[in-house]
Design a protein that fits this description.
The structure holds two protein chains of two kinds. By secondary structure, chain A is α+β, with helices and mostly antiparallel strands. Chain A contains eight helices and 15 strands. In chain A, β14 and β15 (364-371) form a beta hairpin. By secondary structure, chain B is mostly helical. A two-stranded antiparallel ribbon of chain B has the order 1-2. The longest helix of chain B is centred in the first third of the chain and has 23 residues, at 14-36. Classes of the chains: A alpha+beta, B mainly alpha. At the A-B interface, α1 and α2 of A face α2, α3, α4, α5 and α6 of B.
Chain lengths: 384, 182
């Protein structure tokens, strides 16, 4: 039988929708009995970084993540053992090795040093995000004028000991308006848009247009999804997007009036997302936390985050913590014999611990510390 | 869905949760069966998901989004059950007869069996995308949200799964008519 796409769609839809019923009395009895003995987890905030749905823009990050997964697969080494038994039995004496580590050419990972002053104000609305491939960088511009930039490779001039991989600068209100209007005025941001780039680069952008963030992804067919059928950018669109890339990545082209303070300072987040993962096989986050010392689980349960910072992902892969709590967790992990990982990738900016999965041979459990940006997104340029 | 019930359950009202669980249990169980193709695993996934709903309900920020949120927990439970010990099941390849195509586009028996075999060869990740899309009638961006994956990944999983099912439907068309148990 030769099957057209329409036939196949019809056949599969009909087959999947075949009427089926299930008797659920036994299930409900078991659930209600278990619920009687199950406390609810206290409400806590989770970073929305996993909530990719509806936006094609994180594809660039995903591409990077895929590459990093491949690198991990090539470079993972034996390690992360628990000397002396389960980590859950270990006590957390004070240690202090969670600070930034640097390695050439620019891989930086770690928490800001004790006493670092967090960026203020804590929450803010994202108005523009852009991620060109050349130069590969990511910037986030907020309504209050803060401009955060992660630039691939190297420690920027002026970055001090607080540097964790991201630079903060300040724009004026007119500077914010200048950049966003330059973007919106291209006419390419009325609705989410996927465009094909007949080359190897990419450009990912979000811009606030009215009351919503509009996404544009200019990328390669290998991204899959909408890019399998996306139209190739017209010469005019390509020219406009190249112009945006040039404008947004070259601060010296911005008018002086756009700047409130162009000094490059280290961005110090108020919170870190503690993101747990099984690699390569995904593992339920609760199972990973159950492997950690009780003191670590207590920190997770007690985590407090301002309501204004609430995300919408309702996903428990990432748990936000204050820098203080995150620092305490690093000490607990270290005391439990869980190894801090050294940077493996150029541009790696997150602090990560890992140990062998006791329940899945060959699997590794990761605990990553991802800085949370003012709009509530935890930035984790690692395998997802 | 009654949002007040969700809010009461969030506050720890076990009675309200019981009403919610009763309302969703069969839908969850049928969805899980369609994904996992194993009634025991599906029932376990449903139980696991409903307990997760109770435990994590206080974390739900928008009670009106309860349904999508709860399906995310169900899909996650299906992933977990799918990783459990795989049970032996015969891989049936039933070859086509010259039957008329029905209103649904399916031949009476053989296409369904071939789809079943093709579907079982897909990973749980791919099956979940198809079931959410076709059974729950969700667009792929909503499927991506529920599965916790990028939209592009949902698209690629959908296309991969459909290629697999197409191959299952077409592969046996040229073979002799007989039943093979592998």
């Amino acid at each position: 039988m030769s099957t057209t796409d329409t036939d196949l769609d019809k056949v599969v839809r009909s087959w999947v929708r075949a009427p089926e019923s299930a008797s659920t009395d036994r299930i409900l009895d078991a659930v209600l009995a278990e619920v009687d003995a199950t406390p609810q987890r206290r409400r806590s905030w989770h970073a929305p970084w996993l909530a990719f749905g509806g936006s094609p823009l994180p594809i660039g990050l995903s591409v990077v993540a895929v590459l990093m997964v491949a690198l991990v697969a090539l470079t993972l080494q034996a390690g992360g053992q628990f000397p002396g038994g389960s980590p859950a039995s270990a006590e957390p004496p004070a240690t202090d090795d969670e600070g930034p580590i640097t390695s050439d050419p620019g891989a930086i990972m770690g928490l800001p040093p004790a006493g670092a002053t967090p960026s203020d104000p804590t929450p803010s609305e994202l108005v523009l995000r852009f991620e060109p491939s050349t130069p590969w960088m990511q910037s986030w511009l907020f309504a209050d004028g803060r401009l955060l930039t992660f630039r691939h490779g190297g420690r920027p001039t002026g970055a001090g000991d607080e540097y964790i991989g991201m630079i903060e600068q300040r724009l004026t209100a007119s500077g914010v308006e200048f950049l966003t209007s330059e973007v919106v005025d291209t006419g390419l941001f009325e609705d989410d848009l996927a465009l094909l780039w007949e080359g190897t680069g990419f450009l990912n952008m979000d811009v606030r247009n009215g009351d919503r963030l509009v996404a544009l992804g200019w990328g390669h067919r290998a991204w899959g999804g909408p890019w399998l059928t996306a139209p190739t950018a017209t010469p005019a669109q390509a020219q406009a997007l190249r112009g945006l890339t040039d404008l947004l990545s070259r601060q010296d082209a911005w008018p002086e009036s756009a700047w409130a303070d162009r000094t490059q300072r280290s961005y110090v987040p108020s919170f870190y997302g503690i993101c747990v993962r099984g690699v390569p096989d995904g593992v339920d986050p609760d199972e990973i936390w159950d492997q950690l010392p009780q003191a670590g689980r207590d920190l997770r349960d007690a985590a407090q985050v301002p309501a204004a910072y609430e995300g919408d992902a309702d996903d428990n892969y990432c748990t936000p913590m204050t820098i203080g709590d995150a620092r305490a967790l690093t000490r607990i992990l270290t005391a439990a014999g869980i190894e801090r990982q050294l940077p493996r990738f150029d541009g790696e900016i997150w602090l990560r611990y890992e140990f062998e999965d006791p329940n899945r041979r060959g699997n590794t459990l990761w605990i990553s510390f991802a800085p949370i940006l003012p709009h509530g997104e935890a930035i984790w340029l690692g395998p997802g | 869905m009654d949002t007040d019930l969700v809010i009461r359950a969030q506050r720890g009202d076990r009675g309200a949760f019981g009403v919610l669980a009763t309302e969703f249990a069969e839908r969850f169980a049928v969805t899980a069966r369609k994904i996992l193709r194993d009634h025991d695993l599906a029932d376990d996934a449903t139980q696991r998901a409903l307990v997760s709903v109770w435990r994590d309900l206080p974390q739900l920020r928008e009670p009106e989004r309860f349904e999508a949120w709860s399906y995310r927990l169900l899909v996650r439970a299906c992933y977990a059950e799918g990783r459990r010990e795989r049970r032996w099941a015969p891989d049936l390849r039933l070859l086509p007869l010259d039957e008329p195509v029905g209103d649904d586009g399916l031949h009476a028996v053989d296409d369904r069996d071939q789809l079943e075999a093709g579907f079982r060869r897909l990973s749980v990740n791919h099956r979940a995308v198809l079931v959410l899309h076709y059974y729950l009638d969700l667009p792929l961006d909503r499927v991506a949200e529920i599965c916790g994956i990028p939209v592009g990944t949902a698209h690629s999983r959908y296309h991969h799964a459909m290629r697999g099912l197409r191959a299952a439907l077409e592969a046996d068309a040229r073979a002799p008519i007989r039943e093979v148990v592998q």
